[in-house]
Amino acid sequence: MSTASKTKNGVLELTFAKPDDSPDIKCQAITVTVPVGTGATDLASSATPIEHNYSGQGTWHVSKQIGEHAITFTCTPEAPGTPPTVVFDRTRRFTLDLSAIPVTRAPGHAALTITALTTLTNDWETRPVSTDPVEKHLETIADFFFRSFSCEKPQVNNGTSVVLRWEGSEAGTEYWLSWDDNAPIKVTGRSHPSHALTDTTTFVLDARTKAEDGVTVIHHYLSTTVTVKNPDIKAKTLTATDKISVTDTFWADNKDSKKTWARATTFEGEVVIAGKNTLKVGGVITAEEGVTIPTMKKLVVDTIEIPSPTGSRKQVVFNSPVWIQEVVLPTGTPAHLTVKGSVDVSGTVALNKIKSTVNSAIELLNSINQTAGAISTTGNVTATGNVTAGGNRVLRAGDTLRFKSITNRYLSEDYDYGRDHETVMAARTLYNTARWTALHLSSASSLAETPGSEQQLAEPPRADQASAKPEV
Question: What domains can you pick out in the chain, each with its CATH number?
Fold first, then answer.
């Protein structure tokens, strides 16, 4: 019961059922009247704070009517029939819970008035239901009790709080609430609102009393669990024996400067590295369908190594320009591209300089097509084949030439015998034909042609020409 300094709130739990040895009972209504006042026979000092709830099969409607010295609760079922009727058989139970009852300060016994509109056949009548009176007395340590620790809702949405309730004695008892890894907090009364829940949480309520020596603390524990829909899961270690499915976004957060480790992982959607964060891989990245870098975006690498082909061909395809930035490396070596195999280019390679880093010649196995600009060199150009410009052969040292006039006469160094040869005297500049065409006969440096020392004129000289000596 209450004291002058504190109001004690009581709880009544009234369960209705038929006796085991009686026939089934039809019921249309149950009423419970609680006496209100300040006397020894009154249970509540005020009717307003009293709360009600129910449990049992089916749906019931509970209404309350506050009078001058009493509060009456009327319970009617929602069932077929007019008026609605339920049958109390051996399995049916109906429990009316009355809580937050401000118990009066006067010790004594408070009698409840309970009636039920029932019948065994069809003789409906409001009949009294007997029950023991409620005893009120001052609570002592010997009256310790602790029970019914629960939550208002067993499941809530993410970010929602819940009210925790329990029943227990107050004399010489302290209540401490804890959850997860949080330190226990001291709570008072018979209820406490939780924080906003983001994950399924188990609450532990510790009722602490003193032993007979008045020093040793005795702990009494009750727990209740609240399930959270779509929770935020926080775990030290998470092991999935099958797979982890993410319908929206998978965030690997390392704001605490710790690493997120992933072994064999399959992503069916896109993997986005947000902001300017970096993806660091200590092993190998294998891309079966290739790696695509958006247009004009950077791919900064130290070394790209293509293993030797074993079966299918290994290749790297660049659809955008590839820039090798000229920066000084720690060793003092400029940035460079090293290819130990071959490079196949179907488009155009734009180069400012070509330099052999091994002090050997650069070997070109196919032709070079210079469409614009010029090719210049400060050294020698060596070609094992022919060199042409504009479709015409370029003269090289050791080439043998023959000049032909527009009248199909050939230029020769000899006396004029009146035939189809024009004579050029060595001691003077005299050309009978103004325009000449140079015809290539052979290249002394070509492996495919006859050396100059072994070449023969296209038309052998006559006998009288063979002994003739040029005029000096």
Answer: 9-136 (2.60.40), 141-229 (2.60.40.10), 394-460 (no CATH)
